[in-house]
C-alpha cells in the first residue's frame, strides 16, 4: 500500500510539474506593455488610414454611403469637420475616379491606389483599372509609379517600397487565395519564391498563374533600412476549399530581398493584420490573436529576442509609428463601426 501511494504521489507530482511548466511557458510568451494613452480630438467619423506629415497626424475617412468620388475625406487633430479628398478628376474615367490612401512612401509622399472606371467593358468589374500613384501633399502633384494595370483582385491592394523606391512588393488584396508580387516602374512581375510552412510547400507565383489550392501571403512591409521584407503567410487553402473566413492562422516570415529566401520568424497569429516597422528597425506592430485566439489586439514584436508585448486589446483599423516609443492608432469602438477613435500611445519599458 505504501509503495502504491508513493507511486501515485510521484505521478501526481510529475503531472503537476508538467502543468506548472506549461503554464509558466504560456505566461512568458508575452507581456503587457506599460502604455500611457491620450485621446486625440478628431471629427466623428470612421478613420481607415493614418499618416504623419510635417509633425501632424492626418486621418482619412471612408463613407461608403456617399457617391464613389466623394467617399474619402481627411482631418487634422483639432478640426471640427472633415475635408473631401479628391486629388484629380480624370476625364478618361467616365463613370468615376476613386483614390484610396495606402500609406506614406519612403520619400514622404502619399501612396495612393487609383481606381478608374472608363465604361469600356460590359461590367463595372471589367472596365475598372487600378494603378499606383504618389501624391505630394504640399503641391498636389500626382505621379504614376507603376506602368500598366495591376492584377485583378479585391481592393485595396496594399504595397510597400524599398527605401530608394526602385522595387516594391504588392499584395493581391484581401481574400483566399492570394499572394504578393514584385512591382517597379515598368510594371508587375510574379515572385518565383517557394514558401515552406507547416510541412507544406507552395510558390508565391502559383496564384497569379491560376493554380488551385495554394497558400496565401499578405501584409508585406519593407524595413526602413531596406534589409528585410516581412509578410504573413498561411497554408489555409492548400488542403481545403479556400473560402473567405475568420480565424485563419498566419505565420510571420522575414525575407532578405537580395537572396529572396523566406525564413519563418513567428508562428500562429490568428487573423493577422498590417505589419508596420519601427523607425529603428527593431520592432514590428501588427494586429491579431494568439494563444488559441484568447487574446486579440495590437502587438509589438521585438525582433532581437523574438518576444512580443500586448499594447492594447481590441480591434484597430490602422496604426503608425511617430517615434520608436510612440504610436498613433485608430481604434474601433463597437459594431457596426460607423465611427472609431484616434489615440496616441506612449511606451514605457
Describe the structure.
This protein has a domain at about 155-310: Beta Barrel (Lipocalin). With about 350 residues, the protein is mainly beta. Helix content is about 5%, strand content about 45%. Strand 23 (about 295-300) and strand 24 form a beta hairpin. It starts with a helix and ends with a strand. It is built from 1 helix and 27 strands.
Secondary structure topology:
Blueprint: H1 2-27, E1 30-32, E2 34-39, E3 47-53, E4 56-62, E5 72-76, E6 83-84, E7 96-104, E8 110-117, E9 128-135, E10 142-144, E11 159-161, E12 168-171, E13 180-184, E14 187-189, E15 194-197, E16 200-203, E17 216-222, E18 229-234, E19 249-256, E20 261-270, E21 276-277, E22 283-290, E23 295-302, E24 307-313, E25 316-323, E26 326-332, E27 340-348
Parallel strand pairs: 1-24
Antiparallel strand pairs: 2-27, 3-4, 4-5, 5-6, 7-8, 8-9, 9-10, 11-12, 12-13, 13-14, 15-16, 17-18, 18-19, 19-20, 21-22, 22-23, 23-24, 25-26, 26-27
List keywords for this structure.
349 residues; mainly beta; Lipocalin; four-stranded antiparallel beta sheet; globular
Give the ordered list of helices and strands.
HEEEEEEEEEEEEEEEEEEEEEEEEEEE
Strand numbers in spatial order across the main sheet = 1-24-23-22-21
Give the overall shape, derived from the CA principal axes.
globular
Overall mean pLDDT? 87
Instruction: Quickly name the level 1 CATH class of one domain.
Output: Mainly Beta
Major sheet: 5 strands, mixed
Query: Which bin fits the share of residues in helices?
Result: under 10%
- CATH fold title of one domain: Lipocalin
Amino acid at each position: 500500500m505504501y509503495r502504491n501511494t508513493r507511486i501515485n504521489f510521484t505521478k501526481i507530482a510529475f503531472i503537476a510539474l508538467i502543468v506548472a511548466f506549461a503554464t509558466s511557458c504560456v505566461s512568458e510568451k508575452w507581456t503587457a506593455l506599460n502604455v500611457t494613452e491620450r485621446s486625440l480630438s478628431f471629427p466623428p467619423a470612421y478613420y481607415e488610414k493614418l499618416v504623419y506629415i510635417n509633425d501632424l497626424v492626418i486621418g482619412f475617412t471612408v463613407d461608403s454611403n456617399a457617391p464613389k468620388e466623394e467617399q474619402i475625406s481627411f482631418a487634422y487633430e483639432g478640426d471640427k469637420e472633415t475635408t473631401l479628398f479628391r486629388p484629380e478628376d480624370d476625364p478618361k474615367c467616365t463613370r468615376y475616379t476613386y483614390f484610396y490612401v495606402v500609406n506614406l512612401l519612403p520619400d514622404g509622399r502619399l501612396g495612393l491606389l487609383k481606381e478608374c472606371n472608363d465604361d469600356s467593358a460590359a461590367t463595372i468589374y471589367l472596365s475598372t483599372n487600378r494603378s499606383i500613384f504618389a501624391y505630394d501633399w504640399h503641391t498636389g502633384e500626382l505621379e504614376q509609379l507603376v506602368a500598366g494595370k495591376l492584377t485583378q483582385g479585391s481592393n485595396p491592394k496594399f504595397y510597400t517600397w524599398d527605401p530608394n523606391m526602385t522595387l516594391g512588393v504588392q499584395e493581391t488584396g484581401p481574400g483566399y487565395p492570394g499572394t504578393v508580387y514584385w512591382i517597379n516602374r515598368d510594371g508587375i512581375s510574379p515572385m518565383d519564391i517557394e514558401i515552406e510552412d507547416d510541412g507544406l510547400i507552395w510558390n508565391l507565383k502559383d496564384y497569379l498563374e491560376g493554380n488551385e489550392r495554394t497558400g496565401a501571403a499578405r501584409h508585406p512591409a519593407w524595413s526602413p533600412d531596406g534589409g528585410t521584407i516581412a509578410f504573413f503567410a498561411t497554408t489555409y487553402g492548400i488542403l481545403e476549399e479556400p473560402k473567405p473566413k475568420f480565424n485563419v492562422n498566419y505565420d510571420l516570415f522575414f525575407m532578405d530581398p537580395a537572396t529572396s529566401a523566406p525564413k519563418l520568424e513567428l508562428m500562429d497569429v490568428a487573423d493577422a493584420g498590417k505589419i508596420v516597422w519601427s523607425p529603428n528597425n527593431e520592432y514590428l506592430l501588427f494586429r491579431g490573436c494568439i494563444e488559441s485566439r484568447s487574446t486579440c489586439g495590437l502587438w509589438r514584436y521585438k525582433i532581437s529576442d523574438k518576444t512580443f508585448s500586448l499594447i492594447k486589446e481590441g480591434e484597430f483599423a490602422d496604426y503608425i509609428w511617430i517615434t520608436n516609443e510612440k504610436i498613433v492608432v485608430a481604434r474601433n469602438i463597437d459594431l457596426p463601426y460607423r465611427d472609431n477613435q484616434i489615440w496616441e500611445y506612449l511606451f514605457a519599458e
